[in-house]
Amino acid sequence: MITTKHVTNSTELAQVFEIRTAVFIEEQGTPAEDEFDEYEQTAEHILVYDDNEPVASGRLRVVDGVGKLERICVVASHRKHGFGKVVVETLENMTKEKGLSKAKLHGQTQAEDFYKRLGYVTASDVFMEDNIPHVLMIKNM
After folding, report:
1. Pick from 52, 62, 43: which is nearest to 15 by CA?
2. Which of 34, 26, 44 is nearest to 134 (CA)?
3. CA distances from 17 to 26, 65, 94 (A)
């Protein structure tokens, strides 16, 4: 059973960091000093569980009046099963609850089609972020 949880304590935040470490640092080679930043304590984080196992996470910040979806990731064993979509939709719902009508994200180019299927439009040329090609993507809600 897929469930989502708004992170509210240090134990849950540690689970978020474990997922991000596995995906971004170990799998994709992002340096730890680039993965974890000054927004960790102020961003709103979510966890997605498969039964009671945390398998996906993401975070939301409000930047210039827009919901910025960040650090969206799913552990390798649970990809292609809808967990990424749950992360994005949960962060979008949080954005709407704040009264915002637009969301944006920096999507890895390998995930660009995934975000397009969820209604995002590419709004930039390719740029490098943490040595991985990304594009800015925007969605009006």
Report:
1. 52
2. 34
3. 12, 26, 20
Q: How far apart are CA 126 and CA 128, in angstroms?
A: 7
Q: What residues are paired with 138 via a beta bridge?
A: 104, 121
Tens digits of residue pLDDT in 81-136: 999 999 999 999 999 999 999 999 999 999 999 999 999 999 999 999 988 999 99
Q: Which two tokens stand for residue 136?
A: 């800015």
CA distances from residue 34 to 71, 130, 131, 138 in whole angstroms, order as listed: 12, 7, 10, 23
- For residue 2, give the amino acid letter: I
Q: Phi first, then psi: what are they for 65, rounded to 5°?
A: 75, 15
Number of H helices, E strands in the chain: 4, 8
**Rounded CA Rg of the chain:** 14
Q: What is the pLDDT of residues 5-38, one digit of tens each?
A: 999 999 999 999 999 999 999 999 999 889 999 9
